[in-house]
Amino acid sequence: MSLLALSLTNADEGPTSTIERVETPPNPSIVIPFNRDRDFVEREILLDQIHQKCAVLGSRTALVGLGGVGKSQLAIEYAYRTRDQSPETWIFWVHASNASRFEQSFREIADYVKIPGRKDLQVNIFQLVHDWLRNERKGKWILILDNVDDAGFLIQAQSTSDTGQTNSMGSGKPLVAYLPQCSNGSILITTRSKSAALKLVEQRDIITVDPMGEVGALGLLEKKLGRCNESNDAIELVTALEFMPLAIVQAAAYICQRAPRYSVQDYLRDFQKSDRKRMSLLNFEGERLRRDWEAKNSIIITWQISFDHIRNIRPSAADLLSLMSFFDRQGIPEALLQSREDQANSQQDREKSNDDDHAHLAGFADDDDDSSSQSTIDDRFEKDILALRDYSFISIAADRTTFTMHRLVQLATRKWLEAHKQLERWNKQFIKNLDAEFPTGIYENWKKCRTLFPHALSALAQQPKEQDALRDWASMLYKASWYASEIGKGTEAEEMSVRAMNVRKKILGQEHNDTLKSIAMVSLAYNFRGQWDAAEELQVQVMEISKKKLGADHPHTLLRIGNLASIYRNQGRWNAAEELQVQVMEISKKKLGLDHRHTLISIGNLALIYEEQGRWDAAEELEVQAMEITKQTLGADHPDTLISMNSLAAIYWNLGQRDMAEELAVQVMEASKKNLGADHPDTIIYMKNLAIMWKKTGRAIQAVRLLEECTEARKRVLGSDHPHTLKSCSLLAEWKAELEDDDDGDDDADDADDEDDDDTGDDESEEGEEMEMEIRSRRGSPTGRRTMLTHLWRDK
User: Fold this and answer.
1) Which conformational region is residue 242 in: left (phi greater than 0), alpha (psi within -120 to 50 degrees), or beta?
2) 428-550 CATH
3) Cα–Cα dist 777/781, whole Å
4) Does residue 23 surpass a pLDDT of 70?
5) What is the CATH architecture assignment of 300-342+385-420?
6) What are the pLDDT digits (tens) for 232-259?
7) 3-state DSSP call for residue 60?
């Protein structure tokens, strides 16, 4: 029955009373503003958790997660499932983004259930609904508070101005006091902020909502498209969208709007073009079904609203997020987020300006006056980290010193920075911090380089504009390319070194020492990739400038001469290589001493040249000397020591000391696998050399298996067209053909016995030379850069 209100009015005094006719309340029902989603994809674990917690009457449960992750959709689905399973339960939806909408939702509840007195202008609507909910005779209920991203309006004492109510609300109680905890009802909250949730529920009552799994994400895309015959592209697309439900729905809406002339493959192709294109696609607003009118259907805009909120309540946390958006999404190290220089700059900025929103750098905020205190700085940083974690923008790794972000969150943050003309500022800070931490590429620094290298790859795509930032960028890329060459990442080493060289040429000039080091690094990268003529051209250029500026016997000049000798050796110019290497070794002994690392490597390089010429006794004398001193100074498992041991194994083999050679070769390969990894260029060479030894001693099957492992690794590391890969492929095909032609499985063993008894024939000589070619290529070579990089370290 509808409400009939009769007013008894005195002409002078106005309304004196309102008489309400008694109304018949409706039966329990679901009172939410959204239809059920027919495309909802099962998220069983989450729904089970919600059901278990909300089934406890008097409970309060919070769904916490990043905007667009599907919290409200889960709440809607839970509401409809509860209606199906328990029709006698009331289900109410409260928009809780602010006090005004909270009040409006309470008024709508009062109207729907027809609470007497709700039209009285003096009534406290919150108290009215509260009392109705507490009345067990009204039945069971579930109250869903959606979008409680800021719980401040709920927990602070209220006044007329807070809610717009015409009554004074007497006691000024906070709104949270009107959310009853009673035996006939439970409350479900959705929020992006964990800190907001903790103002309303206990930690144990929080359910974290993460992005979907791959299966669920694919299911959502297929349902939204209505069909999907592009399974591989679909998997790649939902992965690129990081399994984020709102982003997937956006993409599907974009594709459907342009079908049939647009497909998943087209969207994926456009998405992968550039950051700018990705931003354009992710800004698209599609269907608005089952999302509040305040909510945005663009994942980017959704997150940027959260950015604005964080900047308003904690500017330093927003600054920290800005800095983190430039890193690789995983393994963001704490050490690179706390810049002491930035703290000083931030303090100077504050003294010049009252605009706090733009005065904070590197995550530091004005929490108190003692800004110079280290403990205060650390405390600020911790609070900033917690603020970002509570909004699900970052997660803290198990090691507690690194952080992870969603790649799309990083993209959205950079877009926000670009719109506010802050992009260059934070890119510059990111590069400065990374350059300050990235060490040189010597073996002793590999552990640190390994953790920072993904961030260097990220920086590679973010060339700054300002000259001082370009200097830092080139410096960082130079060091990162050094490390990339050391671990066998030839493509990355070449790209990084070329970019660094070009910037330094432009800013510093052709003959600046930093420019020369970068040119030498590019030469090294070309050498690694088998581009020996290009490597020679650059190395000659560097050497000549060094001679002119520093003199022919300067250590920097010597290292560049030695590098050129290594290139000559790779080209087969043994005499020219020997002449240069003898010069380098003799001057190094005189100037640096026999035990100096630079001298030892020059000795080893000369030994390799002697090997090329078949001068085994001379090569052995030098290599033993180099190996023993290197082992004493650097350790038995150091890569330089393993290089000498490997070269010595080749010498022993060619001197006929096969058992000693094989024992040494096995030792080298195992140590290299353990310390450098199976795909390291050094390890690959050691595997091939041992395979050749096994083949020559009658273990053909084991040899083929090891050579197969070596060949596949070479394809991964060097590429299918690299000279060494082609050589391994050819040798592998030859060995496999020999095995297929063998009818008797014992033939290899018999042949091996014959070979051990007889003088080496043409076949053995040829394969011995094959192994020798591999070993000689270690120092300063396309597959092993040790000489050149050690020299560059001295140059540094």
Assistant:
1) left
2) 1.25.40.10
3) 5
4) yes
5) Orthogonal Bundle (1.10)
6) 899 999 999 999 999 999 999 999 988 8
7) strand
Place of tokens 């094989």: 662
Question: In whole angstroms, what is the distance from residue 433 CA to residue 435 CA?
Answer: 6
Per-residue pLDDT, 288:
53
Comparing 428-550 with 635-742+788-795, is the CATH topology the same? yes
With 0-12 / 13-18 / 19 or more C-beta atoms within 10 angstroms meaning exposed / middle / buried, residue 190 is buried
Measured CA to CA, the distance from residue 22 to residue 15 in angstroms comes to: 20
Which sequence spans correspond to the domains of the chain? 30-156+174-208, 214-297, 300-342+385-420, 428-550, 635-742+788-795
pLDDT at 743: 53
Sequence-distant (≥ 6) Cβ neighbours of residue 284 within 8 angstroms: 250, 253, 254, 298
Q: What b-and-e string marks burial along 564-600, b requiring 16 or more CB atoms within 10 Å of the CB?
A: bbbbbbbeeeeebbbebbebbbebbeeebeeebbbbb
CA 24/CA 427 separation, integer angstroms: 64
**Confidence class for position 336, pLDDT limits 50, 70, 90:** very high
Q: What backbone phi and psi angles, to 5 degrees, belong to 241?
A: -85, 5
Both structure tokens of 486: 């050391």
CA dihedral 509, 512, 518, 520 (to 10 degrees): 120
Structure confidence by residue, pLDDT tens digits, 124-162 = 999 999 999 999 999 999 999 999 998 989 998 876 554
Segments in 593-657 forming alpha helices (H) = 597-612, 616-634, 639-654
Least confident of 373-377, 464-468, 599-603, 691-695: 373-377
Q: At 238, which helix (H) or strand (E)?
A: helix 231-240
Residue 444, phi then psi, degrees to nearest 5? -60, -20
Q: For residue 392, which of 74, 48, 71 has the smallest C-alpha distance?
A: 71
Superfamily of domain 635-742+788-795 in the CATH hierarchy:
Tetratricopeptide repeat domain (1.25.40.10)
Report the distance separating Cα 717 and Cα 565, nearest Å. Answer: 25
Distance from C-alpha of 563 to C-alpha of 489, rounded to nearest angstrom = 20
| pLDDT band for position 292 (cuts 50, 70, 90) | low
Alpha-carbon distance 73 to 35, whole Å? 11
Q: If one looks up domain 30-156+174-208 in CATH, what number appears?
A: 3.40.50.300
Asked whether the predicted pLDDT for residue 773 surpasses 80, the reply is no
**Structure confidence by residue, pLDDT tens digits, 527-551:** 888 889 999 999 999 999 999 999 9
Question: What DSSP line would sit under 694-709, residue for residue?
Answer: HHHTT-HHHHHHHHHH
What integer is the mean pLDDT of 208-214? 94
pLDDT digits 0-9 by tens, 63-89: 999 999 999 999 999 999 999 999 999
Q: Is the pLDDT of residue 359 over 80?
A: no
Q: List Cα–Cα distances, 313 to 74, 357, 398, in angstroms.
A: 28, 10, 28
* pLDDT, the chain, mean: 83
